[in-house]
Amino acid sequence: MALHRRIGILGTGAYAPAQILTNKDLEKMVDTSESWILERTGIQERRIIGPDEDIATMALAAGRQALANAGIEASRLSFIIVGTNSADYLFPAAAIRVQDALGVNRQLAAFDLQAGCTGFNYALYVAEHLTAPEGKYALVIGSDASSRFTNWTDRSTCILFGDGAGAVVVGPVPQGGIKTSFLASALSMKLLCQTEFNAENSPFLPPHQTTHRHFLTMDGPEIFKFAVNAVKESIRRIVEMSRIEREELDYVILHQANHRIIEAAARFAKLPLEKFYVNVHRYGNTSAASVPLALHEAVTEGKIKAGDKVLLVSFGAGVTWGAALVIWSY
Ligand code: ACO
Question: Nearest C-alpha to atom 1 of ligand 1 is from which residue?
């Protein structure tokens, strides 16, 4: 599809639930230690969604903030896209619940998109290509509540994840914008979460053979290797496609899964660690929310300025991976 307009990020927002779960708290729940978690992951604490919240309420809070920061009214949006892996309902989409809460029913198209922790990069890519031909606006959100399908008796996974949401408004920009982006995927069953939605009441399927089907399971070391390679490939591809030198990258917002993955990625990419934003210690892995939540904090802290070449990179279950090079517009 030919891109007619330069599309960029106009504003960011984020939301993190109030409840904090520390490593010390986890010591009381599973056979682990504060120091093991910190050494192996860099995570100190993560947020847990409240009983009255869900991915749509978190998405709405982040989305409202992004719209306010962009100075764009919801009525000017043409699309709302939520990247998520923890839908409370198979339907309606969380994006439509956000649309309703913003008071723009019937005025735009809203839908969810599932691509593991790469969900935000996927949603951003789709939004870029939907808005570019006619210079439209889209609200792009990553929102996940992994705590709702985490097995809280499995120490190898429950220490890693946290809940939250992040959002951006995309639309036409006079300068800068998304310069290059790509997505990729390949089947891997090493990070798995089966649903319990099907089979239970169907007379056409055998009864469940296993319990805990809906809990997330993971081959941590294999995912670690995949993650580092995915980041390496993402940076190489973006550098080639944009015809820039990797040293020209000003800032990298990498999926916050594990501090050791961020360190390894920086090493392989031959980029200083200072160019990588880090908040994994405060939120853990917030899945599709991770990149927009980190981006919002980096912008708020003044780490990103107009003209900066900012790389947004993520990887996740599927497996999926992808990146976007954004020349910051404001
Ligand atoms: N506390 C104490 N010990 C533990 C814990 C824990 N919470 N979890 C595992 N261990 C033990 C294991 O049982 C193992 O013991 P053993 O040697 O006696 O068998 C030992 O620690 C080492 O386990 P490993 O799995 O080899 O540890 P590793 O250094 O690889 O760290 C980790 C595990 C943190 C999960 C790491 O592999 C990792 O971060 N992988 C990537 C995970 C990830 O990022 N997933 C999501 C990406 S995609 C997405 O975001 C959806």
Answer: 32
Domains: count for the chain: 2
Residue 285 and residue 163: Cα distance in Å, rounded?
8
**312 belongs to a structural domain:** yes
Residue linked to tokens 């991770």: 290
Tens of pLDDT, residue by residue over 7-50, are 999 999 999 999 999 999 999 999 999 999 999 999 999 999 99
Is there a contact between 152 and 300 (Cβ–Cβ < 8 Å)? Answer: no
How far, in Å, from the CA of 328 to the mean position of ligand 1?
Answer: 36
Pocket test for ligand 1, best of 38, 223, 226 (most atoms within 8 A of CB): 223
- Check pocket membership of 254 for ligand 1, CB cut-off 6 A: no
- Residue 202 Cα distances to 141, 214, 273, 296, angstroms: 34, 17, 52, 44
Q: In terms of domains, do 157 and 292 share one?
A: no
Q: Whose CA is nearest to atom 35 of ligand 1?
A: 220
84-123 pLDDT, tens digit per residue, is 999 888 899 999 999 999 999 999 999 999 999 999 999 9
pTM, to two decimals: 0.95
Q: Which of these three, 175, 198, 229, is where a domain ends? A: 175
* Residue 327, both tokens: 């020349």
